[in-house]
Amino acid sequence: MSSASRVTANEPKRATARAVRSTASEVQEPHPDNGQRTDGISIGVILGFPAEIAEELQRWRASFGDPMAAVIPAHITLVTTTMTQDWEATRNHVRDVASKQEPFNVTIAGTGSFRPVSPVVFLNVEDGFGDCVSLHQQLQTGPLERELPFAYHPHVTVAHDVAPESLDEAETVLKNYRATFPVASMGLYEHDDNGIWQLREELDFGTEPDH
Asked: What angle do CA 80, 128, 59 make, to 5 degrees?
């Protein structure tokens, strides 16, 4: 990826001690391509960020006391946790969607909140909002089709389930944050039996899938 451009607030001097060590990078081998799985598999699809922006946002999230800061890298969710019984069909479906998508730019800027419905503060997605919605609509069909409890709204979580004053702080100190960067792929993840999100495939946009 090319270098990202951004305007940010002064970064926190240190992360909170409540942050836990990440195990998300412990990638395991994918399941064999044996089609139907009677026990099901829980998957998610996300857009990852350039390392420097992801690390910066993780430091911010930790500074607000969010214990998930070190476990969940900064990202935009395209498909939230969804069960599927057919790994091969799901993988091929996600590959097909990726093959039809051209790379695009994302700008994240300013803060918003899902309060009072959910104790979440997030960064808004400006440029790329429509691309994220389109990808979500395409992905959440076929083997991943299901009813969602809330309408899809692309965003970047920066504080979740922390004290109200910490949510207020997150919403205030990052209100002028802005970063722009290109995205050219999306990650297909499995939520494994240990509760860890494991990357199964990083799928390049605009590339013919190899089934």
From this structure: 65
Answer whether residue 210 shows pLDDT above 80: no
Structure tokens at 163: 């004290």
pTM metric for this prediction: 0.81
Residue 53: name the closest of 65, 61, 43 by CA. Answer: 61
Nearest CA to 103 out of 210, 208, 206, 207 is that of 206
Q: Are the beta carbons of 140 and 87 closer than 8 angstroms?
A: no
Q: How many angstroms separate the CA atoms of 90 and 179, rounded?
A: 32
Strands (DSSP E) contained in 87-170 are: 104-113, 120-125, 155-160
Taking the C-alpha atoms of residue 75 and residue 51, their distance in angstroms, rounded to an integer, is 11
Sign, Cα dihedral of 33, 36, 42, 45? positive
Token code pair at residue 59: 């430091």
pLDDT per residue over 9-51, tens digit each?
Answer: 554 433 322 222 333 332 223 333 334 444 689 999 999 999 9
What are the phi and psi torsion angles at 169 (to 5°)?
A: -60, -45
The contacts of residue 63 (CB under 8 Å, 6+ apart) are 12, 14, 15, 16
pLDDT in tens, 48-100: 999 999 999 999 999 999 998 988 889 999 999 999 999 999 999 999 999 99
